[in-house]
Each structure stands twice: as structure tokens, then as C-alpha cells.
Automatic annotation (TrEMBL):
InterPro entries: CBS_dom, CBS_dom_sf, Cys_Synth/Cystath_Beta-Synth, Cysta_beta_synth, TrpB-like_PALP, TrpB-like_PALP_sf. One of its GO terms (cellular component) is cytoplasm. Its EC number is 4.2.1.22. Keywords: Amino-acid biosynthesis, CBS domain, Cysteine biosynthesis, Cytoplasm, Heme, Iron, Isopeptide bond, Lyase, Metal-binding, Nucleus, Phosphoprotein, Pyridoxal phosphate, Ubl conjugation. One of its GO terms (molecular function) is cystathionine beta-synthase activity. It comes from the Eukaryota. Its cofactor is pyridoxal 5'-phosphate. GO terms for biological process: cysteine biosynthetic process from serine; cysteine biosynthetic process via cystathionine; homocysteine metabolic process. Belongs to the cysteine synthase/cystathionine beta-synthase family. This is Cystathionine beta-synthase. Pfam families: CBS (PF00571), PALP (PF00291). It is found in: Cytoplasm; Nucleus. PANTHER family: CYSTATHIONINE BETA-SYNTHASE (PTHR10314).
């Protein structure tokens, strides 16, 4: 990892830029945007990067401009690497990314003829992967749980590939000075032109920090009183003061903003105030922007919008003042995620709407099901043994338990098959190598309607709770414990064996906690209704 240590993405910046200072000795190429002249025919698609529109928000907030920004830093980093001789014909571009910068790089590489390898965490959407592959990029996925400085992180894997692939380069959005310069030269100029040189507030999410840094520097020069607002998701550590980051959250669904390290290009001294954003409000507001403003924006756009609304109130912006909000992403990348009611409901971001034809069992708690203790395996069990247990019991999944008795995740037939088929694990390896955290959980007091919605999408749900354990020194630690596993057949069995009566429901059938996926979770309510009618 020597290469990584020399090129850590969180090294202190050596940039000597000072707002309104003497920056004549700046070593970087500045290419200040000139007012564009529309052409009838452009030489290639790269000529259309930039000049993205500034649109007025009419229903959600007044006097708030929306800047829809895409891809420009990818092209700028490639062009500057060509100018200084780093990139040559036949070379390979490697980039660790959450996807959006990767798409910009892949687009530039596709047009210019470079091989492109994108390394991205597993949580990034399928749509981003599809677009990248369509552009000819090769994709490598890394675990969500990997910290940025671990060998298996997207950054660590990218540096490993660079050492192994001849004539390969990491343009490195986290350290590349042309990341913020692209926004200083072009995005900020476009905003100033659209607002006639008057910007009272700028709001942008922080990913690498290039957008915030570039915009802040130019706008502080041209509009000294402009308020710069940084948006950082709960679970990230970019905001200051540091107390803002103590949320107890480690994972967040919103993509493209937030990190577990402070990127070199992010100049936090320029940010007047930081706001934290939560998944639920961010994603619901992204949907609202689509529905009420017709803006087909991505998830982090909701984060920026929610914080902008609060910032306008906090700073007392009045009618006639301009607040510009950066929307850096398109809904195209999230068609199967926050745009889906099922996906939102599955993560408790969307409440189940009241229905006049609600089923009699909807409001009953999960605890009404009779759930036996699940069969479990320890994390030091071999994959072969786990498969034998699954075969003997007729299960498709079993919980994996660590040495301390805590629930570590699920060993599933799907996850084992996926990793064995590509040769990343073998039968004698420990099952800990294939356990997955991609499962849905319910509480015993959750309504069966929630369980039903989960089972329409997933093969099973896990009942999990936190167990607080004390030692002799009266120090406590909380560990997750699995209570049971519920599948479609368990819920169906309960409903069919119980008939509604005036004062409630009778007893229920016992469940075994594990079943195979037999397709029963599709059109769940239709199947249940037919089964109930047959017994009537």
C-alpha cells in the first residue's frame, strides 16, 4: 500500500489560493468560461458539457435557482492530463468513484479512446453501473463496509490496479486540483451570468468537495457577501464543527455526497455554515422536486434542497434575493431506488397509506405469528458444511453468529452461488466470506402490512433486536441478536389458518422460520385473498 500512502485522498492541501489575494503564481491552467455561442452542429458530445440551465423553483421555494450540473470535472481532468503529457494514446484511466464523476470520465474516455476502469462501492445504483458499461467502462465493486484506507475499499483497489496495469493512471478527483478549478472556471461563471452577477446564497452537497470549493472561491471574489452552505449527510464526517457529525449513523442511502475522510480538494474554511441531511427527508424531497417542479433530479438533490430551505429561513433571505442550489444528479441513475415506492417503503422512508379496503390482518403485529428459534451457523463454519445444513433442512438461508453470540449477517444460497461461481470463494472457506447484510428486518411490534410489503420484494425478513450486555465493571455493550426468520409462506399460513371474528383473531399456525423461495411473494395480497375466499 506504499502507493496509497503517498497518494492518500485526505492529505492536507498544498494549494496557496487566497480569496481576493495575490494568486498570480498559481501553477494551474485557468480557462475562464467565455459566454457561449450556440452552434447548430457541435464537433462531439464533449462540446455540450457545461452550460447547464439555471431554473427558478416555483412551488417548493421562492427565489431559489436550481443549477443542474453534470460531468464537467471528468472532462477537465482528462484534458489537463493530456496537456501535461500524463495521458497518452492507449493508456488506461482508473478512478475510484461513487459513480457520477465516473460517468463523466467514462464519457470522455469513450470519445477519446482510452480504456476506463471504474471502482465503486456496492451500494451505488444498478443504473449507474449500466450507464458506465454502456460507455465501455469496466466495473469493479467493493464492500460498503470497507473504510477508505483499507486495501479492499474502492480507493485501495484502484491503487492496487494502478500498480498492476501498465500505463494506467488515477486522475484522482479527491486530490486533483482541476476538480475545483473546473467549477471555478465554468460552473461559477455560468451562475454569475444567469443571476446578473448577484448571488446571495449558494447551497451544494459535499462529495469530494470540488464543487463547493470551486464555487466558493469564485463567488466570494465576485459577491463577497454571498453565503456558502455545505450539505453533508448523516453518517459522513465532512461538516464542521465536528459535533455535527456525531449522529450515531454509519450508513446512508443517498449517493454522491459524504465520506469517512476529508478529501484534499475540499477547502472547508470557505463554508459559512454546514447542514446535515437525513435519508428520509432527502429522498422524499427529491420525489417532491420531481412531482411538483418537474425536475428529474437525483437523491442528493433532495439533500441540497432540504438544507437550502432551512438555510433561507435561518439567514432570513427575503424576496428578491437569489439562492442557488446545485442539483448534481439525474433521476436516471435511481429508477430502481428512491423512485420506487417499494424501495422507499422497504427502508421506512415511505409510510403505508391508509386504504379503505385494508385487509383484516394489516394492523396485527408481527408478534402474532408463531415463530420458532432459527437454525444458525457460526461464522467459523465452512461453506461446504453450511450448504450441507441448508440441503438437509431445506433452507435457502441461515443466520451467521459470531464468537460473541452476536448476529453477523445471513448466509444465503444466492450469495454463496454468486461468489463461488466467479471463483472468489471455495467450499472449504469459512462462511464469514459470503455472509450478506442485504436483508430486511422487522420488529415484533411492526404491523403485518409492513411485513407483507417487504415480502412482495424479498424472499424473507429477519426479526432482529439489540441485546444489552454488562460485564463485571458495569460497562455495557449492545450486540444484535436474531430472533427469527419469516418468509412468505409463514405469513400466508397464518392468514389462511385464522378467520376474523368480532373481537379479534384466533390462534395461528406455527412457522418454521425458514423456507425456500417458492415464488409465493409475488402478488402477495391477491394470493392471500384467493386462499381466504376458498376457505369461506
Amino acid at each position: 500500500m506504499e502507493s496509497f500512502q503517498k497518494n492518500r485522498p485526505d492529505l492536507e492541501s498544498r494549494c496557496t489560493y487566497i480569496v481576493n489575494g495575490d494568486n498570480a503564481k498559481c501553477p494551474h491552467n485557468l480557462n475562464i468560461r467565455q459566454k457561449s455561442i450556440k452552434q447548430k452542429i457541435y464537433p462531439n458530445i464533449l462540446s455540450l458539457i457545461g452550460d447547464t440551465p439555471l431554473v427558478r423553483i416555483n412551488r417548493i421555494g421562492k427565489e431559489a435557482g436550481i443549477k443542474c450540473d453534470l460531468y464537467r470535472i471528468g472532462l477537465r481532468m482528462v484534458e489537463e492530463a493530456e496537456k501535461d503529457g500524463t495521458l497518452k494514446p492507449g493508456d488506461t484511466v482508473i478512478e475510484p468513484t461513487s459513480g457520477n464523476t465516473g460517468i463523466g470520465l467514462a464519457l470522455a474516455c469513450a470519445v477519446k479512446g482510452y480504456r476506463c476502469i471504474i471502482v465503486m462501492p456496492e451500494k451505488m445504483s444498478k443504473e449507474k453501473v449500466d450507464v458506465l458499461r454502456a460507455l465501455g467502462a469496466e466495473i469493479i465493486r467493493t464492500p460498503n463496509s470497507a473504510t477508505f484506507d483499507s486495501p479492499e475499499s474502492h480507493i485501495g483497489v484502484a491503487h492496487m490496479l494502478k500498480m498492476k496495469i501498465p500505463n494506467s493512471h488515477i486522475l484522482d478527483q479527491y486530490r486533483n486540483p482541476y476538480n475545483p478549478i473546473a467549477h471555478y472556471d465554468t460552473t461559477a461563471e455560468e451562475i454569475l451570468e444567469a443571476c446578473n452577477g448577484k448571488v446571495d446564497m449558494i447551497v451544494a452537497g459535499a462529495g469530494t468537495g470540488g464543487t463547493l470549493t470551486g464555487l466558493s472561491r469564485k463567488l466570494k471574489e465576485k459577491c463577497p457577501n454571498c453565503i456558502v452552505v455545505g450539505v453533508d449527510p448523516d453518517g459522513s464526517i465532512l461538516a464542521v464543527p465536528e459535533t455535527l457529525n456525531k449522529t450515531g449513523i454509519s450508513f446512508y442511502e443517498v449517493e454522491g455526497i459524504g465520506y469517512d475522510f476529508v478529501p484534499t480538494v475540499l477547502d472547508r474554511s470557505l463554508i459559512d455554515r454546514w447542514y446535515k441531511s437525513g435519508d428520509k427527508l432527502s429522498l422524499k424531497l427529491s420525489r417532491k422536486l420531481i412531482k411538483e417542479e418537474g425536475m428529474l433530479c437525483g437523491a442528493s438533490s433532495g439533500s441540497a434542497m432540504s438544507c437550502a430551505l432551512q438555510a433561507c429561513k435561518d439567514f432570513g433571505l427575503k424576496e428578491g434575493q437569489n439562492c442557488v442550489i446545485i442539483l448534481p444528479d439525474s433521476v436516471r441513475n435511481y429508477m430502481t431506488k428512491f423512485l420506487s415506492d417499494e424501495w422507499m417503503f422497504d427502508r421506512d422512508f415511505l409510510d403505508l397509506k391508509d386504504s379503505s379496503n385494508a385487509e383484516w390482518w394489516n394492523a396485527l403485529p408481527v408478534s402474532r405469528l408463531k415463530i420458532r428459534e432459527p437454525v444458525t451457523v457460526s461464522t467459523d463454519t465452512s461453506i461446504k458444511t453450511v450448504l450441507d445444513i441448508m440441503h438437509e433442512k431445506g433452507f435457502d438461508q441461515v443466520p451467521a453468529i459470531g464468537e460473541d453470540g452476536s448476529f453477523k449477517g445471513m448466509a444465503t444460497m444466492v450469495s454463496i452461488m454468486a461468489k463461488m461461481s466467479c471463483g472468489s470463494v471455495h467450499a472449504q472457506d469459512l462462511v464469514v466470506k459470503v455472509i450478506t447484510d442485504k436483508f430486511r428486518t422487522v420488529r415484533l411490534d411492526d404491523p403485518l402490512s409492513k411485513l407483507s410489503r417487504i415480502l412482495e420484494v424479498h424472499n424473507y425478513a429477519v426479526i432482529k433486536f439489540a441485546h444489552e450486555q454488562y460485564d463485571e465493571k458495569l460497562t455495557s455493550k449492545t450486540k444484535p441478536v436474531v430472533f427469527g426468520i419469516i418468509s412468505s409462506i409463514d405469513l400466508l399460513d397464518f392468514i389462511i389458518k385464522n378467520k376474523p371474528v368480532e373481537n379479534g383473531v384466533g390462534g395461528g399456525g406455527a412457522t418454521n422460520g425458514h423456507t425456500k423461495d417458492n415464488g409465493i411473494n409475488e402478488n402477495m395480497k391477491s394470493v392471500i385473498n384467493k386462499g381466504t375466499e376458498a376457505l369461506s
